[in-house]
## 1
Amino acid sequence: MFYPYYGFGYDPAYIALVLISLVLGMLTQAYINSTYKKWSRVPSGGESGEQVARRMLDANGCERVGIRSVSGHLTDHYDPRDNNLYLSHDNLGGGSVASVAVACHEAGHAAQREQGYFMMKVRHALVPVVNFTQNIWMLVFLLGVFMNVSGLTSIAVALFSFTVIFHLVTLPVEINASRRAVAYIEQSGMGAVNVRGARQVLTAAALTYVAAALTSVLQLLYILGRTRSEDE
């Protein structure tokens, strides 16, 4: 029988899901932080993250992409809305292997957009959909449970599925941007240390997206299982 408050009761499966999510999140975050910290102590060879990212952007036909500063730690991102890279202070002016790796990763996203990378187009198209569905699916789900309307719970599952799809689509987008970054660092002749460090930093960063995708898939499977239990 379905617990009416969706996991707020003593459901062992739900508790296990929460614990798995927390552990995955903490482990991946700790790994990226430690890896970034390690390579932030290793000089890149004289150039800052901003300088290398600028060269990479220009080499990929992204001359119009700007580079701006953003506050916070590892808050770096590329915003296609205003066509700017936003680099945290350490990565903007820092001259470490880690700062170059992160800056080039974000430049890789700009290159994806410039070259019409298909999966990035799909991800961009999903953004407004996910922004809507992730705010409403739980409400629809609870209404379906309280009103005992299986159609509403099915709709809620479909709405949540967009979040899962978004996480799965994000994986190749992030991995591809990292590959572009490592390839540019290697081709530009920055040295084996920079290449090795960039691979380690960006692999650690990719694991956070893997964990998010895995967690969302597990949550979807849990919801589907509970919905089927209610129907039976």
## 2
Amino acid sequence: MKATMKHPAPPPPTLATDSDFLAAAEALLGPRGLTRDPELMQPWLTDWRGRYTGRALALAQPASTAEVAALMRLCAAHRVPVVPQGGNSGMVGGATPDASGGALLLSLRRMAAIRRLDPAAGLVVCEAGVVLQHLHEAAEAQGLRFPLTLGGKGSATIGGLVSTNAGGTQVLRHGTMRAQVLGLEVVLADGSVLDLLAALKKDNRGFDLKQLFIGSEGTLGIVTAAALRLLPAAAGRATAWVGLGGIKEAGRLLRRMERRLGDVLEGFEVVPAHCLASVLAHQPGARSPLAERHPWNALIECVSPHEDNAALSETLEQALAEALEAGLIADAAIAANEAQAEAFWALRDGISAAERALGPAMQHDISVPVEAMPDFILAAGPAIEAAHPGTRAVAFGHLGDGNVHFHVLAPEGAVRGIWEEAEGKAISAHVHDLVTQWGGSISAEHGIGQMKRDELARLHDPVALGLMRRIKAALDPEGLLNPGKLV
């Protein structure tokens, strides 16, 4: 199949008013496809964190790529901005319209078909509205798996994951969403449909155009479908919770486990004592995997398509016994069954909710080179706490790929909503300055959205920013796609 661009018919003449546009959009999409009902729109006008609330001209829910393309032609004719939205589970306000009420909120949740699942090819073609958990279930039914997961798998959609280049807990072994995408179907700002779904192993016809849209947060085009790679189902899984004396020991354990376990090592998450205590206090029925408290903990996951649970657990147990003998770890518990493994992961996945219950916090999704991350945590935490008295800095997450969630908790008594807008912004700027000095990124996996747009402009390489803006201007000259986000 060739990569093709289907050129639309010339758009109709520009109509004069919003009512004309809405009438034409309703005629196109039908009553299920377009609503202005405030109650139906309200849940989708505030971001997942509750930090941004906007207004929209209407909520459009097309049911096919053809409807998306026709709608974009209509929006181009009327100069109506469009804010694409997947599961509305983003962390940076990237799918929330502004307060003007002039933009159309475009949801692809009705486009939830799995068009093709080919077990022999290890390939699935699914529409943008497919929920990640549903994709997992469809793959598992065929003896396969999709190697990307995250805490919001029950609401995150494939289109959103592609548009934000999502990460998750398996990046150490399998890479981000970018590594899973074999092809895309994208509707451009003028309604053209770019068909790049052919999953070719080798294709040297110039630019790899699909890479432009992965991570572009809906600012260059609307992803309507994706061809994704699938892997053989896991024959065995082994999960361990490890107690450590410090973050430096965690870094050394990571390298030791990589050498000792090889490709079966899929996840290496770090959790400080403060975060674990917060989850234990907040999450009903939660229990610490270890009898004693440790300054740091590591959650290690191994998955193999060949070894069964017993064999893989034995391999992991031997590797940890060697680390214990070498004085690198203090204690460890290996999950005895799937339920216990899921309980370990529930402790890790529950950190954000538990900390949110404690009060306001500034949350940063940052990365630095993997080898530098332990030293960064040891340097940045005290620096932030000293400069902003009463705060507490905690870091947790994907140490294996150099990405941690660096949260700064507000002083006791801080008022949610006020503190973030005042001292919180200065704290984030300080954190981003430190990350930049360490050669890192202010956004490792959550994107830029509207939350970090000004910081990206302040800190990113001006040459790179200039190129991004020129690409945006070329593909969306009227600035209709997700205005106010990313660039």
## 3
Amino acid sequence: MFLAVPKTGTTALEGALAPKAALVFRDPPILKHTPLYRYRRLVEPLLMKAGQVELKTLAVIRHPVDWLGSWYRYRHRDDLVGQPNSTRGVSFDDFIVEYTRGKPAPFADVGSQAKFLTSGGDDKPGPDHLFRYEDQHKMLAFFEERFGEPIALKRLNVSPPMALALKPETLARLEKKRPEEFEAWEGAGR
């Protein structure tokens, strides 16, 4: 069961893997991006009742600053100008500071990779396989071994390119306020 963490290349992976899958949640986004805790609570019991054997879970996690940069760039698109979730007119530093608040403004309310990858209150560990976005060759090798053929990814749903700079004090704030994001990424790919 591939868990599609937003902004980690999941659309490209979906495009490559969907023809090989028995079940694909595409729309709406709340289904496509079903976190581990929701999968274990709702989807896994349904699959077990349908006769499925227990499935292994897999996800991709991105370095927190890179992940937030992707969100920032994605929400900087022309079609979002004037919308509450647009980052137009907001610096990347301000976006990060807002993200670290208890209840961020809509433009910085992007969730949490760490929370996405937890079981939600029970003692079950995170996904069985967790790959770093930055180590795509390992993830592709994993899929290629299981499917017995090469997996080719196309660039889909890519955030617009733009240079992003982060002040050292803003990075320190992010690391202090959201350590679970860095811990989750550090624990991936081992």
